[in-house]
Amino acid sequence: MALNPHEVGDPDQRFEPLNDFETFVESRRQAIDAMIWQVPALSVAAQAFLYVAGLNPRVSDGVQIFAGAIGFVAAIAAMQLLLKHRYHEESYAQAIDASRRARGATPFRGLRWFKEAAMRDSELERKEDGERPGYERRWRSGSWRRKLTEPSSVDVWTFTLLVFAVGDVLVVLGGVFHGCGIWQPFR
Length: 187
Fold this sequence. Notes:
The chain is mostly helical. It has a domain at 19-109 and 154-179. Helices cover 71% and strands 0% of the residues. The chain is elongated. The model is unreliable at 1-13 (pLDDT under 50).
């Protein structure tokens, strides 16, 4: 069954198509949504490069401190950009919903319309086949897959970048302590 909001469910519940303004804003929202996931990927690549330099026992303390400091700045900047992209993406979604409410159309409320359409689709499938669809069995509440996907990906990546930032601080501290002769784990 199709999950198109124009075709699923009670005819009185169908969504009206987007108007020109909403189409424009939705294209902007989708562009921001695509950019959101470029930030963590680039940051992880940068962190890997900087950790190679910062944790190399053959580099000077200055290089280690510099690599850790640059990595810290990169992790914090990536977190800020990730959250800023998310803010803009949510703002665009709210603008679309406000426009739809103003003209009497049903708002999307993020992806809630899609989940509701999927549930209606699942109910129709269950009535026709008398059995739960395969995806519903795999993604039922309490399954490990469902638990793994419940947290917001933006929150997970923000936490991951924070862990990188803490690692970078530890690289800087290792360089400082080694330079002062307090700690010499690799040499």
